[in-house]
Structures are given as structure tokens and as C-alpha cells.
């Protein structure tokens, strides 16, 4: 349990570094965020295929069987998240899009994991979910709610909610696939499909060493490597718990912006950061207690959301 929590947390931490690189690509090199999203998947694919080939040599891998449709759904969800979120940012306020996509996603995961994966949402996970969502709202800023009341932002807000559904979808489908397949193979197949779906948006950046290195970084570190960590951890913990730990992404992005870009956080923002940290502590405590309880009963759980 604790190992899975740490791997998911590490993956979410790496996700949080993507925003900083993306901001430089947008401001200095004029790249459209949707183009950056397409490059993220395209650059990650060769690395993920290599990881899957290494994994196949280490362990005996079962054949995909009839899971092709689940791989296709996973790939569509990954591509859908990139396309819908970045389009939403263009059509509504950035803070509103972030709030809707990031805060709604773990709630959707918790509800659907209970309905389809039979995960029990225990008191620690429930408290961590509430603390994490509230903390994220405060960290992003309560001004993010202003975009909800303006009609011209309706399409962008709906796209942000669709992005949250895509995130919840690929988390739950990924959890289902991991019950019978190794994580690296799952990612290699689904991200290849996602890259194909977003290939129409690929555009060559201006000739620049910095832009090339940043695209390489975004594709390898906060995409390929981060998702490998996330899926490796997701295989070992409930999806509802993983969705709470994934809220480390906005916290990482905010802290990096403070120390590397000189951006400030308001007292309310710092309170949100504290609530996010509290949610991670609650998840960790719940994981340890849940693991201890199941060991005492003589079996390992994959669905207990305590």
C-alpha cells in the first residue's frame, strides 16, 4: 500500500513540472497549448515502447486477449483530456478551467470507482478527498468561480468538465486493465493510440534548441516517466486513493511557480497548500491502517479505499 502511494505521488509531482515547461514554450516560443499536448504524447511513445519491451523480458506477459476495446477507450480518454483541457483554457478563464478539471476529477473517480470497481471509500480517504478538493480550490483561487457565472465561458467550462471525465475515465479503465496486464505495456499501447488521435495537431516549433529540449523534457519526464510511476502505483492502490494523491500536481506547480518564477501565493493560497498536504497525510495514514487490517486477516486488498 505504502509503495503504491509513493509511486503515484512521485508521478503527480512530475506532472506538476509540465506547467512550468509549457509556460516557457507558450510565452517564449509562441506554441499553442494544444500543440504542446500533442507533442507530449508523440515524444513519450518511443520511451514507453522501450519500457514495455524491457518489461516483457523481465516478466511473462499475458496476451492482450479481448482487451483491445479497453486500450482504445484508454487512448481516447488520454487524447480527449489533452484536447479538451487545452481548448477549455482558450475558451474560459484559466483558473476556472483548472478548477473544474482538477477538482471535479477525483470526485468523479471516487463515485465511479465505488459503482464499477466496488471500491469502498473509507473515512480517511473521504476526509482526504474533501481536504484535497477544498485545498485545490483555495490554491487556485476563489476567483476561479467567477468564470462559472458568465455565459460566454459556457463552452469552455463544459470542455473543462469533459476533461475531468476523461481523466476519471482513463484512471478507471487503467485500473481495470492493470488487473490482468503489466503497466508498461498498457501505457505503450494506449499512448500510441492517443498520439495517433492527436497527430493532426502536431506542428513543428520554430528552430530553437531551448524549444526542442523543453518538448523533449515534457514528453519524457512529466509524461512518459510520470505515467509509468502513476500506473505502477495505481496497480497497487485503489483508484479513489490515487486520485487524491494526484492532487499533488497543482501543489507542485504552485510551489515551483513561487520559487522559480517569483510568483506569489496569497494567504488563502497557502491555506490551500496546507489542506492539500493534510490530505496526503490522511491518505498515507489510511493506507497504513488498511494494509495492517488486511494483513491481520491474511489477504491483500486491491479495492479497499480506507
From TrEMBL:
GO cellular component assignments: membrane
Membrane topology: Multi-pass membrane protein
Alphabetical keyword list: Membrane, Transmembrane, Transmembrane helix
Keyword presence, Zinc: no
Gene3D superfamilies: 1.10.3730.20
Transmembrane stretches, start-end: 37-56, 68-88, 94-117, 129-148, 154-172, 184-202, 214-232, 244-262, 268-287
Major place of residence: membrane
Domain of life: Bacteria
Presence of the UniProt keyword Ribonucleoprotein in the record: no
Compartment list: Endomembrane system
InterPro entries: EamA_dom, EmrE-like
Domain EamA: 3-140, 155-284
Family as reported in the entry's similarity comment: Belongs to the EamA transporter family.
Protein name per UniProt: Drug/metabolite transporter, DME family
Amino acid at each position: 500500500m505504502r509503495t503504491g502511494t509513493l509511486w503515484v505521488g512521485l508521478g503527480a509531482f512530475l506532472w506538476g513540472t509540465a506547467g512550468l515547461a509549457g509556460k516557457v514554450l507558450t510565452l517564449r516560443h509562441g506554441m499553442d497549448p494544444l500543440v504542446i499536448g500533442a507533442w507530449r504524447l508523440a515524444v513519450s511513445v518511443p520511451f514507453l515502447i522501450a519500457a514495455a519491451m524491457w518489461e516483457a523480458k523481465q516478466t511473462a506477459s499475458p496476451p492482450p486477449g479481448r482487451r483491445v476495446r479497453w486500450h482504445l477507450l484508454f487512448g481516447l480518454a488520454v487524447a480527449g483530456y489533452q484536447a479538451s483541457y487545452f481548448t477549455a483554457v482558450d475558451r474560459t478563464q484559466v483558473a476556472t478551467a483548472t478548477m473544474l478539471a482538477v477538482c471535479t476529477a477525483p470526485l468523479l473517480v471516487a463515485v465511479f470507482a465505488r459503482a464499477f470497481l466496488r471500491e469502498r471509500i473509507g473515512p480517511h480517504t473521504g476526509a482526504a478527498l474533501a481536504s484535497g478538493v477544498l485545498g485545490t480550490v483555495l490554491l487556485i483561487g476563489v476567483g476561479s468561480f467567477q468564470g462559472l457565472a458568465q455565459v460566454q465561458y459556457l463552452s469552455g467550462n463544459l470542455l473543462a468538465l469533459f476533461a475531468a471525465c476523461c481523466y476519471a475515465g482513463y484512471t478507471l479503465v487503467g485500473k481495470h486493465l492493470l488487473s490482468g496486464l503489466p503497466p508498461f505495456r498498457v501505457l505503450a499501447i494506449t499512448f500510441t493510440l492517443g498520439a495517433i488521435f492527436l497527430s493532426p495537431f502536431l506542428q513543428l516549433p520554430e528552430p530553437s534548441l531551448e524549444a526542442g529540449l523543453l518538448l523533449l523534457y515534457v514528453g519524457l519526464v512529466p509524461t512518459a516517466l510520470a505515467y509509468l510511476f502513476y500506473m505502477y502505483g495505481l496497480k497497487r492502490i485503489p483508484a479513489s486513493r490515487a486520485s487524491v494523491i494526484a492532487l499533488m500536481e497543482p501543489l507542485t506547480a504552485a510551489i515551483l511557480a513561487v520559487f522559480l518564477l517569483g510568483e506569489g501565493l496569497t494567504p488563502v493560497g497557502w491555506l490551500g497548500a496546507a489542506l492539500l498536504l493534510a490530505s496526503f497525510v490522511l491518505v498515507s495514514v489510511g493506507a497504513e491502517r488498511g494494509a495492517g487490517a488486511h494483513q491481520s486477516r491474511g489477504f491483500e486488498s486491491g479495492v479497499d479505499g480506507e
